Amino acid sequence: MEIIIAIGVLIFSVIIHEVAHGLSAFWQGDPTAKYAGRLTLNPVKHLDPVGSIILPLLLVVTQAGIIIGWAKPVPYNPYNLRDQKYGPALVSVAGPLSNLIFALVCGIFFNLFLKLGIGGDLVFSVFSYAIYINLLLMVFNLLPIPPLDGSKLLFTFLPISEHTKQVMEQYGFIFILVFVFMFFPVIFSLVQFVMNIFSEYIVGINIMRFMGF
Q1: What does DSSP assign to residue 204?
Q2: 31 and 82 in contact (C-beta within 8 Å)?
Q3: How many CB atoms are closer than 10 A to CB 194?
Q4: Which residues are catalytic?
Q5: Residue 198 to residue 205: CA distance in whole angstroms
Q6: Cβ neighbours of residue 104 under 8 Å, at least 6 residues apart?
Q7: φ and ψ at 33, to 5 degrees?
Q8: What is the dihedral sign for C-alpha 49, 16, 185, 123?
Q9: How far apart (Å, rounded) are the C-alpha atoms in residues 6 and 59?
Q10: What is the pLDDT of residues 29-86, one digit of tens each?
Q11: How far are the Cα atoms of 18, 28, 78, 162, 173 from residue 168, in angstroms, in the given order?
Q12: Distance between CA atoms of 114 and 99, rounded to whole angstroms?
């Protein structure tokens, strides 16, 4: 059951993440995502077989301790954005911000259900995984490694040449794999730190215990 919950929550969360990118671009004047039919929560429009299903399933089954994944990137044309300097950064930060907001909403409902004495272990397990996975997605995507969202923020504020950007994006997936395997404890510690804040100040109870940690 936990495998189904974790993968289901992850799929929904990465879809929200990508739709947030598309909406941010649309609100700034770029209709590319809208014309591509990507401003929808319909999973058929977003799922990537490897990133949305196969990789998360392997990570859960092997008890890797981390659940990451991705949907198909929402297309957008940065030249259509009204703000050419900071527009791409706003599009990029919309994804991680949507995950934070989703986690906050789940945390508020978790707290409310606890106080009202409603909901069972299944409901609290779903809320717990939703909070954990969305915080993990937020932290992971803010890493300044192409093609993650954090790299777009880095490119906005640092004088990096287009050639250097292209090289970094070309080998970005390799950088991500190396970073995850070498610095996984750092990522896990960051997520656990934020989870502790949620547990203490938003939910009022240790969220991790509902996930078997």
Answers
A1: S
A2: no
A3: 18
A4: 18
A5: 9
A6: 202
A7: -65, -35
A8: negative
A9: 10
A10: 999 999 999 999 998 899 888 878 887 778 777 766 667 778 888 999 999 999 988 9
A11: 22, 26, 19, 10, 9
A12: 22
